[in-house]
Write a structure and sequence with these properties.
2 copies of one chain form a homodimer. By secondary structure, chain A is of the alpha/beta class. Chain A has helices at 14-25, 37-45, 69-78, 93-102, 112-115, 155-167, 177-200, 207-210, 215-221, 228-237, 239-261, 266-282, 308-318, 348-357, and strands spanning 6-10, 29-33, 50-51, 57-62, 82-87, 118-123, 144-149, 171-174, 296-303, 325-329, 336-343, 361-362.
Chain lengths: 369, 369
């Protein structure tokens, strides 16, 4: 029972274009605007919406770099282009302050009626690559989207923003801008800086060391390919909370380094850090929020021929089993590999015997995931 | 032209049992030994080999915790159970020193003939979970396996160890124990401690922060669930090199924290760290060594019904396309998701049109991976 609305999307990068595609898929009117002509053209060609030519929209989504958010929000509200405006930047306190400053007059009076129509937002979705080419309608599906209404935000504006989030297939998580920035400093910004610090250590290593890079290191440095300018902007825009968490991590690593040098109690110091990490790790909720769902893994040996994966999944489907996820562990060019099928615990035994009967080499392992 | 041999595997955890399974698959005789009766029984039931009853083997693989390596290697060589002995511990200098000490007599003379028969080894493979239940024959397929012969290691011993590595489907990378430990301190051990330090920050966070945990943070803390005792052992066994790298990372994060507090040049400091991270990241070779292979991603919208993935891959196979990898981006319980098919660049256009013709909703995105 979600009625179609009209939405103006300002900024047609990965996030803006994905929002537009999701909204179009839901039958909404979408207008697109971007000073980056090439991005805008690409988004238009993808069918993400129509070029904005002054139409008034119910909601405007400002999906521009953090430093430009306040100015663009002010322009959109001032020009009367939308009833409610929200943004998508990964920092929330600074843009709100900058916007408040823009709508404060020479006498120090805040234009409260404008601030009432703005709701900060931050969809927790992204990819390693940016730009409209990597956009897709399902980017936000099932993921959290934080909304940070200020004390002046109207009930109508929050409702409009919540409609937008739901229309993109995400679920709204409401908190204050301050809470958001403190939390995201740890869960996103610090992760970026730590990944970069780790990858930076490779710069001066001899070539032999590169042969020792395994999956753990790859996973931990995948985001190190990010855009420096964007991250300098984000980090300086959330400097206080970020400095606190980084200093904390730096100190706890420094303490372990010191303990390792006085070999006496290094085991204790390292053990304590690993224990604390396990305790923190246990607090991470399941992938899509709520209680983590347990899967059972059924590993199957396959050969490197076209159609193997299809035949395997066909046999799984014929057994009435819904494969929830799979992981391919295969070196291209080598004759065999393993495909791990993730299924609900109730399906594992049946799948195992059905695949064995169909001639597949099913490995003994069936650990939980 | 690899002739079958007899191998003794001491320690039937994840690594030992996987070695045994790989060797059995190649038609070799495998004898198993473990003081952990339950592990040994499980490995025997998996068909990983026969219970060791004093048979002499060509090669012995000592797959026990780092702290026990020297003692067990000495026992195996002293008891005449194998011609060549290698181990699988992720640290190489300390076990070698401990072993040399064990075979040095009261007059300070080293039993060089014994040291000649030992080659340190470290397969770069592993999983988040340990124990024989998670073992599988393909664990080492296509991955590097470091061998660290000492100056006293005989040519025959190195050759035997290289045979073992090849028989497990891995490729041997030869370097000194010191080179290995310095390199692995960065690529594996530090990654573990950084993941733990990051996850440990979650312990005292308010519940709302846990809603902000996204994929990047999950990837970076996945290994934080590791075993504290094992890691205390590994870290203290590689204390010097590890302390150097950790102190370096701690210092570079500390400098960024300081810059963020004096907001003037924080953007510069953060930008420089991200740039250095990018430079390091570019040095990481492709997944299986050698030049990274480029794939093209073809994203397809699918519904959450049994058999969708099979039908999709069946259609890909019918078009003659070999899908090299795939990523499922799907929230269980929600009606639609995206499956990203990874194919060679030469196959992307054909796959796209074949799937579209077969009625699939193929998204516009086709970025490289």
């Amino acid at each position: 029972v979600v009625r179609p609305r009209s939405v103006l999307v300002v900024g047609t990068g990965l996030i803006g274009t994905s929002v537009a595609l999701a909204l179009r898929a839901g039958g909404n009117d979408v207008y697109l605007s971007d000073t980056h002509a090439e991005h805008l053209d690409h988004a238009l060609r993808m069918g993400a919406g129509e070029r904005h030519q002054g139409e008034r929209a119910d909601v405007a989504v400002v999906a521009v770099p953090p430093r430009q958010v306040a100015t663009v929000v002010d322009q959109v509200l001032g020009g009367g282009a939308a009833t409610t405006v929200t943004d998508t930047a990964s920092i929330k306190v600074r843009p709100l302050r900058e916007f408040a400053r823009l709508v404060t007059d020479a006498d120090g009076d805040l234009a409260a009626s404008r601030v009432a129509r703005f709701v900060g937002g931050h969809p927790l979705a992204g990819r390693e690559r940016s730009g409209p080419r990597t956009a897709r309608a399902g980017l936000f599906t099932g993921l959290p989207w934080v909304l940070t209404p200020s004390e002046l935000t109207s009930a109508e504006a929050l409702e409009n923003a919540e409609w937008l989030v739901a229309a993109c297939g995400a679920h709204a998580v409401v908190m204050s801008a301050e809470e958001h920035d403190r939390g995201i400093a740890l869960t996103s910004h610090v992760a970026q800086l730590v990944a970069s610090a780790l990858a930076a250590e490779l710069v001066d290593q001899p070539d032999a060391v590169l042969k020792l890079v395994g999956q753990g290191f790859r996973d931990m440095t995948r985001i190190a390919a990010s855009d420096p300018q964007l991250w300098a902007d984000i980090a300086s825009g959330n400097a206080g909370p970020l400095a606190d968490v980084i200093a904390d991590i730096s100190a706890s690593l420094g303490a372990v380094a010191a303990a390792l040098r006085e070999s006496a109690d290094s085991g204790t110091a390292v053990g304590a850090l690993i224990e604390a990490g396990r305790a923190g790790h246990r607090r991470i909720p399941g992938k899509h929020g709520g209680a983590p769902r347990t899967y059972r893994i059924v590993p199957v040996i396959v050969s490197d021929e076209p159609g193997q994966m299809a035949r395997l999944l066909g046999d799984a489907a014929a057994a009435g089993v819904n494969v929830e996820d799979l992981r391919v562990d295969h070196a291209p060019g080598l004759p065999v590999g393993v495909i791990e099928l993730f299924v609900g615990p109730e399906s594992a035994a049946g799948l195992r015997s059905a695949l064995t009967a169909a001639g597949w080499a099913v490995a003994e392992d069936s650990a939980d995931a």
